[in-house]
Amino acid sequence: MENKKERAVLAGLAAASMDEHERSSEVSMEELAALVETAGGETVAMLIQNRPTPEPRSFLGDGKVREMKELIEANECDLAVFDNELSPSQMRVLSEELGVKVLDRSGLILDIFAQRARTREGQLQVELAQYKYLLPRLTGMWTHLVRQTASGGSSPIGTRGPGETQLETDRRHIRRKIQKLEEELAAVRKVRGTQRRRREKNAMPVVALVGYTNAGKSTLLNCLTGSDIPANDRLFDTLDTTTRRLRVDESTEVLLSDTVGFIRKLPTHLIEAFKATLEELSYADVLLHVIDISNPEWEEQARVVEALIRQLGAEQTPCLRVFNKCDAYFGILPHGEDVVCISAKSGEGADALVRRLSQMLDRGKRRVTLLLPYSAGGLLDALNREAAVLRTEYRDNGVEVEAVVQPELFGRVKAYIPGYEEPREDWEE
């Protein structure tokens, strides 16, 4: 039997007193509807209210709340979803007045994340964010104790204590859970740190794909590495970091990491929770910022991603803007040194992207042919460990090695390049 889709009415507020990025607009409401669909629901109506400030008690004005209630009843809805962050008391009031479950944008995103997380780490991160979201909202969950009152006055004797005690017990329990989850995540980070140090030792560069949710990062990863990671037209389809190897030229192999998509109004505690995944960004050698140029809102989306990159402390990492879905765009394509236009679906422009990536990772590498005496076995070990060795031939007078080396290693091996002379400085001429 097919599960019945939950039906939702969406509401947003554009108040003059709010920061511009917090206000609801047609675009953010469309995005909210897409989030509802990703969560497995269906949107039946949406409304936006303009007013100077939010109503402290019910967030929206009384008239709008009544209008929502009528829409909910007429369409047999199970859910009211708000585009803005609601306080715990507003959520409680709205839930009572509308008679259905009330979610705000953060709660909805958390719900999607909980459905999508596959790895233990991803699940830990979601659970931590959910508990942090839940803690201040606990009070509203104990209204059933107050409803036991016969006269609608204060709770009858005998029900006050347990309710309060239960609420406090739950708070303590959740705080303990949060602490335990934070400890488990710290352990995960430690393991990641060890793996990262091993990668640095292996000198394999890391390239991280970042971008707005649904910009085409997973499709690009598949296109470049020949993988078959599921890439669907859905928000937040990738939650757990996926890493694949990619050879960018004859001497360089990189680790390409796909990360969780960003979105406007991403809840702060969610960014905090996902720092373990997203901290890969600050350790990456290059960021590929994937932008869906076919989306009319791409400039705003790119701004959101850049703000989050700054928030995660990765603004110093070299970044290449990758404009995706160029085959669906009919204007003048962007161009510049740190810009590549591609279509991840058809593969058009992928070669140019790999070439540009190779240039960015070059870091002064040099291709050399060396003749190492047998007594310099330590250098041969160093070359195998730290350079890309293309050819090794054992001869009577030593080992001939062809390799691509980093500048620091070049200094140690240049004496073994047959016929090598130091370039003369201008003043030495």
Radius of gyration: 28 Å
Strand content: 15-25%
Unreliable stretches, pLDDT < 50, 5 or more residues? Answer: 142-163, 425-429
Number of helices, counting only DSSP H or I runs of 4 residues or more = 15
Shape: elongated
Q: Mind summarizing the main beta sheet?
A: 6 strands, mixed
The computed structural class is alpha/beta
The average pLDDT value, as a whole number, equals 79
Residues in helices, as a percent range:
40-55%
How many E strands? 13
Across the major sheet, the strand order is 6-7-5-8-9-10
Along the chain, the helix and strand elements come as EHEHEHEHHHHEHEEHHHEHEEHEHEEH
Note the gap between the termini. Answer: 86 Å
Task: Outline the structure in words.
By secondary structure, the protein is α/β, with parallel strands linked by helices. It has a six-stranded mixed sheet, with helices on both faces. The chain has a four-stranded parallel sheet with strand order 2-1-3-4, with helices on both faces. A hairpin with a 2-residue loop joins strand 6 and strand 7. Helix 1 runs parallel beside helix 4, helix 4 packs antiparallel against helix 5 and helix 5 packs antiparallel against helix 7. It starts with 5 loop residues before the first strand and ends in a 16-residue tail after the last helix. The C terminus is likely disordered.
